[in-house]
Amino acid sequence: MEEQLLERWRAEERDQPEGWDFSSLDDRMTESQEPWDLDAQYRQTLGNAQHVLDMGTGGGEHLLQFADLLPADTTATEGWQPNIAVAQRNLAPYGIEVIEYGAPDDDVGSARMPFRDDRFDLVLNRHESYSARELARVTAPGGTVLTAELVDRIPASLIPPW
After folding, report:
1. Per-residue pLDDT tens listing for the chain (162 residues)
2. I need a labelling partner for 34 at 20 to 30 A (CA). Which of 3, 4, 132, 149 fits?
3. Number of neighbours of residue 100 by Cβ within 10 angstroms
């Protein structure tokens, strides 16, 4: 029995997903329905955007769901080494540059974003670590930062003021 369990675990470790494609878990995982529709929010804000940043794109799978709305000036970041090549491969055909960048979870303010001030009018972020000060710096006046975070699990003392 124990050996069978170990073999199943080893098989899981061998078959790692690429990017943010977790379809191999479809029959073994459930998600709670959120009280908002993030994809609808993405579609609404992308309709007016000209300079978009997708932070922590994974393999670019989620971003590509909106390919019909993405402006020519769309950039993505990814900080997890195994996903960088996946994102570049998936997003290059759409002219989307992938920049290696990720703020450390335990010190988000220590890594300056590799973009000039006021660079983007829309920043998309799904659960990626970030410095609020850096987001404010790279977001153009009047721009939008659209983020989905697990705030209920983050102590208020760790959320920096904007």
Report:
1. 788 877 877 777 666 666 666 666 677 767 677 777 889 999 999 999 999 999 999 999 999 999 999 999 999 999 999 999 999 999 999 999 999 998 888 888 899 999 999 999 999 999 898 999 999 999 999 999 999 876 555 555 454 544
2. 132
3. 14
**Cβ–Cβ under 8 Å, residues 124 and 41:** no
Q: How far is CA 118 from the centre of its chain?
A: 20
Tokens of 142: 């009047």
Tokens (6 digits) for 73: 């000036």
Report the chain's terminal Cα–Cα distance, integer Å. Answer: 53
What global pTM score does this model have?
0.80
Are the beta carbons of 72 and 46 closer than 8 angstroms? no
